[in-house]
What does this fold into?
Amino acid sequence: MRWLTAKRWPRALAVATSLVAILAVFGAVVTGVVDLIRHQSKELATRAVAGIDQLHASLNAGPFPLSDAQINSGRDQIQKFFTSGSFGTEALSGLRVAAETAAGTVLMAVILFFFLKDGAKIRAFLFGFLPEQHEAKAHIAAEHSAIVLGGYVRGTAIIAAIDGLIVGIALAILQVPLALPLAVFVFIGGFIPIIGATAAGSLAVLVALVSNGPVSALIVLTVLIGANQFEHHILQPVLMGKVLHIHGLVILLALAAGAMLAGVLGALLAVPLTAVGWTVIKTWSGRDDPGQEVPGPHPIGSNAEGTAI
It folds into this structure.
């Protein structure tokens, strides 16, 4: 949007063009993923039948063998749940949530349009209610928060993309069905720090187990754990070290609080809200030098005095 306005486009047109481009890219990705799932669903179903038979045999002959009666009882319980009224109630609840999500998405797009178009005016209007001696500090806190939030979103997107790429390549080499949709799912899960990509990757492990057997599932699990360690020890310090200074314990507590208060959405927003809140506190209390755009170079989890919580 800034690039278009620099080319002397009207601001409203630049914002509208940017939003349309975002929707076009997002729609193309979703359409491609759905098309792949549709084309590979039959192959997955065929492999699933063989995989379930193999899993059945493994359970019979494993270190803790289960009898056919026990396995059939568990299967009957699952079938009973899916055919019960409670499952129908859950499905209706899911439809309601889907409708609310669609309405929220439209509202978000409208709000984003006006924030991009008139964000400076809106901020100046809100800060105008503050005492005059605090307005300058409020603008500095807003600028620092924008830097931290932008760095967090960009860094998280890059990390999530790398996680999805690693898992996707492993699935493709092992010829696991739905490799690309599963990689996209890992990418989306990567926006929840620490646990998101690993939790989303568990679906890839399950698909590999059902379609290709336990050996492929074990390989996918090993790759997933390796990608998780690579993310924590290398990617996060390198990509977010200059903008995000939050100890790992604080991230875990923020994730837990966000998930309990607002579910998946709370888990997604907990860490960036915590980072922005800490930035505002540091700026307002004078712990940040107003002349610096970004706090010091210590990575996530740094214990340098005054640079991390």
